[in-house]
Amino acid sequence: MQRNQSKTNKKPSYLKVMIRNWLFVLLISISIFILAGRINYWQGWLFIAGYISFFLALSVLFVNKKDLILERAKPGPGTKSWDKFFFPLYVPTTFSISTIAALDAGRFNWTGNLPAFAYIISYIVLVLSLSASLWAMWVNKFFSTAVRIQTDRGHHVIRSGPYRFIRHPGYLTGCLAHICTALALGSLWALIPASLAVLLIIIRTYLEDKTLKEELPGYSEYAQNVKFRLLPHIW
User: Fold this and answer.
1) CATH number, domain at 69?
2) What DSSP character marks residue 83?
3) How far is CA 217 from CA 78, 150, 154, 211, in A?
């Protein structure tokens, strides 16, 4: 039993995680152009270039933070039971953003042509949000994909970087990235799954914040100093 459990909890190698990340980028890239039905879907090319830059930065900057990358690839024990329902809902919802956008702007043109400023603003915000996400990951070694108290990794409250301003900066950048993905790919219809993804993030933010207050030493005091979970001066 112990031997089987240790095999189950064994994390993949760093190389395997990086290969998996790049295969994901390749899958998204191919699917966007297949769904768009044309290779000259320029919104798709710009979007893919942005995400290649993000994963390239992740691969280079975090080469000495392999424990974080491995934790994100396969979290340790103690994931909250309610959080096990998150990704089965979240992953197909987020994937449908690029799916609907490619069908819309690439193939059927349901939305029509968006004005240039919509693309400019969406790409600026998308780049800023992805950069802020990397910042949050850089200062927070506990930036996991699972909601759990990481006692196996010495979990403690992070107060530096973007955590000085809001308690869950990674979730804020996720919300912005989903909305901007729909617009950057040229689709208003894709804002529907993007909004659903944002709703899921908001629900998870509330539940995770509640868990941290109850179970992570020092978090309640931190929450009294940094009063906002997601949006400064709002919530």
Assistant:
1) 1.20.120.1630
2) G
3) 16, 12, 11, 11
Please say if the pLDDT value at position 6 is more than 60: no
The Cα 5–Cα 58 span in angstroms is 30
Containing structural domain, residue 124 = 2-225
Query: What pLDDT sits at residue 9?
Result: 57
Name residue, tokens 């968006």. Answer: 114
Residue pLDDT, tens place only, 83-120: 999 999 999 999 999 999 999 999 999 999 999 999 99
46 and 114 in contact (C-beta within 8 Å)? Answer: no
Q: Per the domain annotation, does 75 fall within a domain?
A: yes
Identify the CA nearest to 208 among candidates 163, 171, 166, 160: 171
Contacts by 197-203 with C-beta closer than 8 Å and gap 24+?
197/90, 197/93, 197/94, 197/97, 200/86, 200/89, 200/90, 200/93, 201/90, 201/171, 201/174, 201/175, 202/171, 202/175, 202/230
Residue 230: inside a domain, yes or no? no
pLDDT reading at 173 higher than 80: yes
Indicate the SS3 state at residue 141: coil
Count how many domains the chain has.
1
Is residue 221 within a helix (H) or strand (E), and if so which, with residue range? helix 219-225
